[in-house]
Amino acid sequence: MTRRITMMIDDDLDKKIRLLQAIMIQKENKSISYSFVLTSTLKKALK
After folding, report:
1. pLDDT per residue of the chain (47 residues) written in tens, 0 to 9
2. Which residues contact 33 (CB under 8 A, 6 or more apart)?
3. Fewer Cβ close by (within 10 Å): the C or N end of the chain?
4. What is the rounded distance in angstroms from the CA atom of residue 35 to the CA atom of residue 41?
């Protein structure tokens, strides 16, 4: 189940997330959403 949450992210973190997104898009050669990158990064960090 997913939940929509609004939050503020510092510019430096936004740039890092966008960079990860670009890398993932290049590797997978398909569209990957910002929220997918953010969620997968949080899951890895909170294990």
Report:
1. 889 999 999 999 999 999 999 999 999 999 999 999 999 999 999 99
2. 21
3. N
4. 10
